[in-house]
Recover the amino acids of this structure.
C-alpha cells in the first residue's frame, strides 16, 4: 500500500496495527475518503475517513481512528496529545485496539466529560 509505506517505515513499532486497521476500515467497513495522518506527538499514524451510516438522511460521518496493539500501554496524556495534534480539534476519536488473531475493537473516546445518550 503506497499510502501507508512512508508511515510504516517511520513508525515500525505500530505498523502492524496501522496496517490491520487500515484494511478493516477500507475493505470490511467500506469507509470512503480515507487518509492517513502523521501524529508525531503520539509516535504513530492515525486514519481519517467517512464512515458509512445506515441512516440515509444523515449521510456519512467523518471519524478519526488511532490504531494501537493490545500489548501497548496508553495513557491519558497520550490521548490528550492525539486530540491536540488533530486539526480541526475533534470532539471524539476512536482507538482501535488490535490483537495477534486479527481481532479489532474500537473504543469511542470523547474529550472531557460527556453525558451518555439516554
Amino acid at each position: 500500500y503506497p499510502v501507508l509505506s512512508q508511515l510504516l517505515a517511520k513508525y515500525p513499532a505500530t505498523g502492524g496495527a496501522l496496517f490491520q486497521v487500515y484494511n478493516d476500515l477500507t475493505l470490511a467497513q467500506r469507509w470512503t475518503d480515507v487518509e492517513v495522518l502523521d501524529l508525531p506527538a503520539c509516535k504513530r499514524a492515525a486514519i481519517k475517513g467517512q464512515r458509512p451510516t445506515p441512516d440515509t438522511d444523515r449521510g456519512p460521518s467523518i471519524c478519526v481512528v488511532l490504531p494501537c496493539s493490545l500489548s501497548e500501554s496508553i495513557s491519558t496524556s497520550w490521548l490528550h496529545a492525539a486530540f491536540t495534534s488533530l486539526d480541526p480539534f475533534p470532539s471524539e476519536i476512536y482507538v482501535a485496539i488490535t490483537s495477534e488473531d486479527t481481532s479489532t475493537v474500537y473504543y469511542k473516546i470523547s474529550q472531557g466529560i460527556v453525558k451518555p445518550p439516554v
Summary: The CA atoms of residues 43 and 70 lie 16 Å apart. Residues 15-28 form the longest helix (14 residues). DSSP finds three helices and five strands in the chain. The helical segments are 2-10, 15-28, 76-85.
